[in-house]
Amino acid sequence: MKAMSDTLDLFQIAEIELMYKGKGDYQRPVIQTAEQAYQLLRHTWDDNKIELLEQFKIVLLDNNGECLGIAEMASGNITCCLVDVRLIFATALKSRATSIILAHNHPSGNLKPSTHDMKLTQKIMEGGSILDVAVSDHLIVTCKGYYSFANENVMPAPF
Prior knowledge:
The protein is an alpha+beta fold. The chain contains four helices and five strands. The chain has helices spanning 4-9, 34-44, 85-94, 115-131; strands at residues 55-61, 67-75, 99-105, 134-141, 146-148. It has a five-stranded mixed beta sheet, sandwiched between helices. The longest helix is centred in the last third of the chain and has 17 residues, at 115-131. The chain is globular and about 65 Å long. The N and C termini lie far apart (64 Å).
């Protein structure tokens, strides 16, 4: 009979490590309104891409509404981008976020959410409910303004 170590040698087992590295002692912006979230996103969004291709990002927030960071989840083409919900929550959980704000741009400048935008928001909210990560809002971002799902009562308003 083969020894257990011989059997384990037959399999290459991946080692998984989770870690979070904060940026030290600094003042994190507090996000309490959709307008504040929009201003933060516009400040960090690449002006060379906002009207070129669609991107999907999340703003990661702690229990106090302090911004832990912004993560780009997907980059697509002129009309859409494919978002993997699993990556959204892997990022949120790894960063210790208790809530997230979803954000994507419409290169066309149209602020009206599509049917796909509505369905994706609902799907992410359901996942967040299971994992105890609140989805506070979903913003459609353009150079000239934003659409807040929460402000428009498309989803429960957190602010």
